[in-house]
Amino acid sequence: MSGTIPVFVNDRPVTLRAGATAADAVAGFDPDLAARLAAGAATLTDGRGIAMAADQPLFPGAIVRVIVSARRGAEASDAHA
Fold first, then answer.
1. What is the pTM of this model?
2. For the purposes of burial, counting CB atoms within 10 Å of the CB of 69, is it exposed (0-12), middle (13-18) or buried (19 or more)?
3. Closest to 58 in 3D by CA, of 31, 18, 1
4. 18, 38, 64, 73: which has the highest count of C-beta atoms within 10 A?
5. What's the rounded Cα separation, in Å, for the pair 57 and 45?
6. C-alpha to C-alpha distances, 27 to 14, 46, 68, 79, nearest whole angstrom
7. What pLDDT is stored for residue 39 in this prediction?
8. What percent of the chain clears pLDDT 90, i.e. is strictly above it?
9. What is the pLDDT of residue 70?
10. What is the pLDDT of residue 79?
11. Which long-range contacts (CB under 8 A, 24 or more apart) does 67-72 make?
C-alpha cells in the first residue's frame, strides 16, 4: 500500500501511512497515550464502542477511541493503609 489515510483518534484527525495500525494512530495522536496503551493502562474501541486490538489495520475514516483506566495498580493502592 502507498499513500496516506485520514483517521480519527478520539475527536481529532490524524493522517497516517496506508496500512497503519490502531496503535500507530494513537502514537501519532499522543505519545503519552501510546505509552499507556503499551503498558496495558489503556484500551481501544472503534467508533461504535466495540473493543479493537492495537495491531488492527485501519481504513480511511476509521475512528479509534482510547479508554484510559482509572484504576491504580496494586502497588499504588491504599487498601493496605
1. 0.81
2. exposed
3. 18
4. 64
5. 13
6. 10, 16, 14, 34
7. 94
8. 80
9. 76
10. 52
11. 67/42, 67/43, 68/33, 68/36, 68/41, 68/42, 69/41, 69/42, 69/43
Q: Judging by DSSP bridges, how do beta strands 63-68 and 42-46 pair with one another?
A: antiparallel
Nearest CA among 63, 50, 57, 74 for reference residue 8: 63
Name the amino acid, one letter, at 44: L
List, in order, residues 6 or more apart from 40 with CB less than 8 Å away.
none
Helices marked H in 1-81: 22-29, 31-39
pLDDT tens per residue across span 22-43: 999 999 999 999 999 999 999 9
Grid cell locating 22? 490502531
Q: What letter would DSSP give residue 72?
A: P
